[in-house]
Write a structure and sequence with these properties.
Layout: H1 6-72, E1 77-82, E2 88-91, H2 93-100, H3 109-114, E3 117-119, E4 125-127, H4 133-138, E5 143-151, E6 157-168, E7 174-183, H5 185-221, H6 228-260, E8 268-270, H7 272-285, E9 292-296, E10 303-305, H8 307-323, E11 331-335
Parallel strand pairs: 9-11
Antiparallel strand pairs: 1-2, 1-7, 3-4, 3-5, 5-6, 6-7, 8-10
Helix pairs in contact: 5-6, 7-8
């Protein structure tokens, strides 16, 4: 028969409690690194999200700045008009330049709109003083490449090529209008110069053609009565006038070559006094009646120049001077040395 020992039972219970405490402590020690690792992972994830958001914000700000710079430096005027008030909320540099041509000193953009009249291509005139801009824009559909004229009461005006797009809300109401404006004044000036150029060319061609036509008609009508001297005189007139037409056509071709940068230049040593004398003779033979005063410094060195081009340039300068000055006035032409140049 066995006897249970109470002291042994107590020792076993204590050992079990101690072992459980040790296991619990070990479990806690294992959980602490896991919690720290989890915390570090969460912090890293949050930091990565913050950095990504910061980069996205920076990229958006950079893209917005680039877009604003592009719009502000555009050669086309850009205006954003708020609705329903009709006040301009944004004007780029070119739009401000166009508007400033109509605005009085100290006048705001809103005050300028109140006195501006808009004339459309169909002849319709809209006075913004009587017909507020907001009401006019609220009725406007998309406009594509329409030429309009902006006028103010003192007569100043500017023609622009207008593109306008209303920005509508989900309910269909116009919230704002984006308009682009291209100043037509440079184009009108180019058109004026083109018409003037065509007029000059027509006049310059008509004169030699008239002389040629008259000489040929005289030779055909009076063939039997003309002596050889008169015949040679008519032929000389035809030859000279045909040469003038040839030179004019060559000048027109030179203009095209200058614009494309393909005008050939052949510099060679030349005496400037001889070139001036050739230009004077060309001016006289072309009918120039103005008196010429030529002052050439002595002992001028030879110059490197395309002789034909220099004579052509001097002749054109003399012709322009004669055209824009009284016939009785003298044209002065001087040649002096300036360092290594003449």
């Amino acid at each position: 028969m066995f006897r249970r020992d109470s002291n042994c039972a107590c020792d076993v219970g204590a050992d079990r409690e101690h072992a459980a405490a040790i296991m619990h402590d070990q479990a806690l020690r294992r959980m602490v690194p896991f919690a720290m690792r989890f915390t570090r992972v969460m912090l890293a994830s949050q930091a990565a999200l913050v950095i990504a958001n910061a980069r996205r914000h920076r990229d958006e700000q950079r893209a917005r700045a680039d877009l604003e710079t592009l719009i502000d430096t555009s050669p086309v005027g850009v205006a954003v008009i708020d609705m329903p008030g009709g006040a301009p909320v944004s004007l780029n540099k070119e739009a401000r330049r166009i508007v400033d041509g109509l605005r009085n000193p100290g006048q705001t953009a809103e005050q300028l709109l109140d006195v501006t009249t808009v004339r459309r291509a169909d002849g319709t005139a809209i006075s913004l003083l009587e017909f507020p801009l907001a009401e006019a824009l609220s009725m406007m559909e998309t406009v594509r490449a329409e030429e309009i004229v902006l006028e103010v009461p003192d007569g100043r005006r500017v023609a622009v090529l207008l593109n306008a797009t209303p920005i509508r809300s989900e309910e269909g109401e116009v919230e704002s209008v984006v308009a682009t404006m291209q100043d037509m004044m440079p184009l009108e000036e180019m058109e004026r110069l083109r018409a003037e150029f065509l007029g000059i060319v027509s006049h310059e061609l008509r004169m030699p053609l008239t002389s040629i036509w008259g000489s040929v008609m005289a030779m055909l009508e009076d063939t039997e009565d003309l002596d050889p001297v008169e015949m040679r005189q008519f032929l000389r007139i035809i030859l000279e006038q045909a040469g003038s037409m040839r030179d004019l056509i060559a000048d027109l071709l030179d203009v095209a070559r200058i614009e494309t940068g393909t005008l050939p230049i052949h510099p060679e040593p030349a005496e400037l006094a001889a070139l001036v004398d050739r230009a004077r003779n060309t001016f006289r033979s072309a009918g120039g009646r103005s008196s010429l005063e030529i002052d050439s410094a002595p002992d001028l060195p030879l110059v490197m120049a395309d002789r034909r081009r220099v004579v052509q340039v001097i002749g054109n300068l003399l012709a322009n001077a004669a055209r824009h000055s009284p016939e009785s006035s003298a044209i002065q032409l001087s040649a002096v040395r300036d360092g290594v140049h003449v």
